[in-house]
């Protein structure tokens, strides 16, 4: 009876030579490959003892910037969320109240701003879409966690602290900020 897939193979019972029976050529071939790899340059580094330099165009963890006076730059316009192809950014906005001029630069601000790091593909389109230069991708590595909820970054993780500014001067110029 012929099979339907026509993948039938005829198996031959070829007699092995004495050398093949001892697997000597195969063992020598394997040792030759191992010996070649001993003297090759390693493609990996021993992290965390050795760290590689990042390229200037590396896109790591996001940061929401503040202006020189410590006010948040984000005005919750939503262009970053619209530009995000992975739909990783969500936000809600609110109007600034009297007395909050020292916290928010514009009349509207983001009450909640969240980035789902599990969805983010670090494409940088949010950075390009932002007209206020509020969001940047830095050279910091996103830490690892065991729980999925830990990867949803809110304003507590995204907004840069007033006393610990994040340096973005090594990032490529977008043309929106002075060189």
Describe this structure in words.
- GO terms for molecular function: 4 iron, 4 sulfur cluster binding; iron ion binding; NADH dehydrogenase (quinone) (non-electrogenic) activity; quinone binding.
- InterPro entries: 4Fe4S_Fe-S-bd (IPR017896), 4Fe4S_Fe_S_CS (IPR017900), NADH_quinone_OxRdtase_chainI (IPR010226).
- It holds the Pfam family Fer4_7.
- It is built from five helices and five strands.
- It has 179 residues and is of the alpha+beta class.
- The chain has a domain at 61-173: Alpha-Beta Plaits (2-Layer Sandwich).
- Strands 2-3-5 form a three-stranded antiparallel sheet. It has a two-stranded antiparallel ribbon with strand order 1-4.
- It is elongated, with a radius of gyration of 28 Å.
- It starts with 17 loop residues before the first helix and ends in a 21-residue tail after the last helix.
- The relative contact order is 0.17.
CA radius of gyration:
28 Å
Physical arrangement of strands within the biggest beta sheet: 2-3-5
CATH architecture of the domain at 61-173: 2-Layer Sandwich
Which word captures the global form? elongated
- Per DSSP, what share of the residues sits in E-state strands of 2 or more residues? 5-15%
Chain oligomer state: single chain
Order of helices and strands: HHEHEEHEEH
Q: Structural class of the helix and strand makeup?
A: alpha+beta
In round numbers, the mean pLDDT is 86
By DSSP (H or I, 4+ residues per run), the number of helices equals: 5
**What's the CATH class of the domain at 61-173, please?**
Alpha Beta
Please name the CATH topology of the domain at 61-173: Alpha-Beta Plaits
Uncertain ranges: none
Task: Tell me about the largest β-sheet.
Answer: 3 strands, antiparallel
Number of strands: 5
Helix content: 10-25%
State the end-to-end distance.
77 Å
EC number: 7.1.1.-
Subunit structure: NDH-1 is composed of 14 different subunits. Subunits NuoA, H, J, K, L, M, N constitute the membrane sector of the complex.
Binding site for [4Fe-4S] cluster 1: 74, 77, 80, 130
Main location: membrane
